[in-house]
Amino acid sequence: MNYEKKFLISSFLIIFSILFAFILYINYNSYNLQVGFLNNKTKKELIICSYKMNCPKTDINFIPKNKKPKPEILKLKEDKNSFFMIFDVPYLKKYYLKLSISKIEYLNALKKIKENIFRQFIVEFTFILIFSLILTYILYKPLKEAYKINETFIKDILHDLNTPLTSLKLNIYLLKKEIGENQRIKKLEQNIKAILNYQENLKNFLSNNPNQVETFNIKDLIDEKLSFYSINYPHIKHTNSADCEITINKNAFNSVIENIISNAFKYNKKGGEIKVYMKDKKLIIEDTGIGIKNPQKVFNRFYKENERGIGIGMNIVKKLCDELKIDIKIESEKNRGTKVILDLSRYC
């Protein structure tokens, strides 16, 4: 599933990023340490040369002591082509001794340091890449097993629900034979159908395959949902002018529409209204209901603002929209209503 891929990618990136930052830090310090050793070596060579005064690779110069600004003594300095140091020699009263050494050897040595550090970095990079992959798999394996156990458990429950639901349907059918049609029996039938729809929604969420697509007109699907819920909510008016033929996973899209329209009826006001329409290839489902105080939290699992429901419907809707690559937005104002916007531009 897409969530498993997200877990694998995010886990790998976290592990790899931490290890990568660590080897960068190690190699940076190693480089600075080796450059420090090289600078100390250069400095020692010049100090030794100041005693021997017989160094073939060293240039000897003299600087007047009255020259300003006063030069720094025994400090390794560099110019364009050389490193040099200034010495205050006791027997030279008017001059400082300046010893210079070419940068060529230093730069060659520095190049070797960089090459060694780079080779070391490549080896370490390869190691942490392999290690990150292995560790991600080790972390993912028990999670995948737990997910499969959980998924199997839910599917078993959904399967077991079929027996009492079938029994209910049969008894209602027999009851209709005995006493005939009436409003209460219709409501019972609608409630059983609603349970079956929720069951189907959960099945779609667990086994959704976005590649299983079919072509249909969303107007027919939405009209069916509006008619279905209007039986239990006859006091709520509804209109549907959305007309767009799309090719998509119908089961998953049906679950999205089911949840949104169900909420539009469930949280509406008596005498309220539901409008469904298209604008700029966006499907808009608008109601005049109680509204949402924190619309940005609606997609959070188990979030709810009242006692009705358990707070997973819109979380499932968001995940199905992500699977279908549909951008979903919610605009709402407390006690004024809610507007759900589905961007179908990639389908319409």
UniProtKB/TrEMBL annotation:
It catalyses: ATP + protein L-histidine = ADP + protein N-phospho-L-histidine. It comes from the Bacteria. Its main location: membrane. Its EC number is 2.7.13.3. One of its GO terms (biological process) is cellular response to phosphate starvation. The chain crosses the membrane at residues 7-28, 117-140. It is a multi-pass membrane protein. It is an enzyme of class 2 (transferase). GO terms for molecular function: phosphoprotein phosphatase activity; phosphorelay sensor kinase activity. One of its GO terms (cellular component) is plasma membrane. Coiled coil: none annotated. Keywords: Cell membrane, Kinase, Membrane, Phosphoprotein, Transferase, Transmembrane, Transmembrane helix. This is histidine kinase. It comes from Caminibacter pacificus.
